[in-house]
Design a protein that fits this description.
alpha+beta; Nucleotidyltransferase, domain 5; 19 helices; 21 strands
């Protein structure tokens, strides 16, 4: 029996979950929720970390007021973004968000210093301009005074752990998203740091998921009423925590952590950095229990968030999905990973422009835009599975979709139809659940991640989607591949 608190912060919202493990079952309840989002200021996009910290502290106070005294606390966030600290430990400016355009063109400039093949052989990380490497390289090229003044760099969850405990660490799963960690040695890669002009002294040694960072600072205990309970680094990258909660048996499955991004792949014991993996642009992100997450980052439900914003938030997500279900199938498709969808001024405008470039009709309604995005996402899932086959990955007999995207039943059904594989959806709160269960394993309340996944299977209902209408999806897939080539 144990009680744990998970702080799970995504790009759109944050939540605090309390979990109680009893009799082999996990009961969770959300104790607080708060919004998150990018703050445009001074020509850049930032994260409002002071506000996030205050929201978390208020959440701690609510937990204490409810009489909940957890055995431990753990935090997870998205990857690639970071905070810079002065030598005295104070934060230097607000962290810049990964969708900020400062990284435009930085990958190509860095390839002139270090070839793609060399970078991939060292890091095994998918090439995306949002990666920490290119964010820092942009700062170096701009002569950033903040970078020159910095004494430490901490990834977002590591920075929050520092605010909670006063201790500076860098946890493995989030560190691998930087494209600066050598996945073969587990250490920061000096050659890449030197080539980019990034001071190696900024980087702390890497700790593994499940490491106890330290107790809550007295000042936080005094403010909230919580005792100085231990803060544990779970898989601090939200996808790492989510995959830890995949309710699967055996190894013949693929997972999709579905939310703002769709992270799709398999678990491996060793990183795969072959020329084929480079060509397909797969990433090797750190996992729990000595594993790697061999996966692809796919743009995800960010597309639907952008569609909703493009229609002035007149419709909620359920309304958009309903309208999509009533719209014409396969009228228009897009390459969901086209860089022009990363942070457009108007998502509907960007989708329409893609359709015009590729000789397709413009979507003509909010439902048509949403159906275009969802069908294209499902077809991209099939594309990833086909690439895994090309790379001689172990056979996949089923797909587990976890995270908030499981609430979109239309997308889950489309995923089954597009891939021709059964899809098991749930749990929706996989990230917080995985965070909690890694804490439980760390403390010794569970023996292993295998035991943790057994707890998930016994505690949460899954919804199964069987593939249907495969011929129509086969035809759509051929069209989809042609569009990706001609865009």
């Amino acid at each position: 029996m144990g009680c744990y608190v998970a702080i799970d912060i995504g790009a759109e919202s944050g939540r605090i979950l309390a979990g109680e493990l009893k009799g082999g079952r996990l009961n969770i309840r959300e104790t607080s929720r708060f919004s998150n989002g990018m703050l445009r200021m001074g020509g850049h996009l930032h994260w409002n970390v002071p506000r996030l910290f205050e929201e978390i502290v208020r959440g701690f106070s609510s937990i204490a007021a409810a009489g909940i005294i957890p055995d431990s606390i753990g935090v997870d966030t998205w990857g690639v973004d970071f905070a810079l600290l002065a030598p005295d430990g104070s934060m230097l400016g607000l962290p810049v968000a990964y969708r900020d355009p400062r990284t435009d063109g930085m990958m190509e400039k860095f390839f002139k210093l270090v070839p793609r093949e060399t970078i991939y052989s060292k890091t095994g990380v998918q090439f995306m301009q949002i990666n920490t490497l290119y964010q820092l390289f942009a700062m170096v090229r701009a002569g950033s005074p903040l970078l020159a003044a910095a004494g430490d760099l901490l990834m977002m969850p590591d920075f929050l752990n520092y605010l909670f405990t006063g201790r500076k660490t860098m946890e493995f799963t989030n560190a691998t998203t930087t494209q600066l960690l050598n996945v073969h040695t587990g250490s920061w890669d000096g050659e890449l740091l030197e080539a980019a002009g990034i001071p190696s002294a900024l980087f702390r040694p890497v700790v593994r998921p499940g490491t106890e960072i330290g107790p809550l600072l007295n000042e936080i205990s005094n403010r909230t009423g919580l005792p100085p309970i231990p803060v544990i680094a779970p898989a601090t990258h939200d996808t790492g925590s989510a995959v830890a909660a995949v309710p699967a048996e055996g190894s013949d499955f693929a997972y999709i952590s579905s939310g703002t991004w769709s992270l799709m792949g398999i678990e491996t014991r060793k990183p795969i950095t072959s020329p084929g993996a480079l060509k397909c642009n797969f990433t090797n992100e750190g996992g729990v229990n000595g594993t790697f997450r061999f996966l692809k980052n796919i743009m995800g439900l960010w597309l639907v968030q952008g569609i909703r914003a493009g229609f002035a938030e007149k419709y909620d997500y359920a309304e958009l999905t309903k309208m999509a279900s009533e719209s014409q199938s396969f009228r228009s498709l897009i390459d969901v990973n086209d860089i022009r969808f990363l942070n457009p001024d108007s998502m509907p405008g960007a989708i329409s422009a893609f359709c015009r470039r590729t000789g397709q009709p413009d979507p003509d309604s909010p439902g048509a835009f949403t159906r275009c995005a969802l069908e294209s996402l499902a077809l991209e899932y099939r594309s990833v599975l086909e690439e895994l086959k090309q790379l001689d990955a172990p056979p996949v007999s089923r797909i587990h979709i976890i995270g908030g995207g499981t609430k979109n039943k239309l997308l889950c059904r489309m995923a089954a139809e597009a891939t021709g594989l059964p899809v098991f959806a749930g749990p929706a709160e996989a990230t917080g659940i995985g965070n909690i269960l890694v804490q439980a394993v760390s403390i010794g309340h569970l023996d292993s991640i295998g035991a943790a996944r057994e707890v998930v299977r016994g505690s949460f209902d899954l919804e199964k989607y069987e593939p249907e209408n495969t011929p129509a999806w086969n035809s759509a897939y051929e069209k989809f591949l042609e569009l990706k080539e001609k865009k």
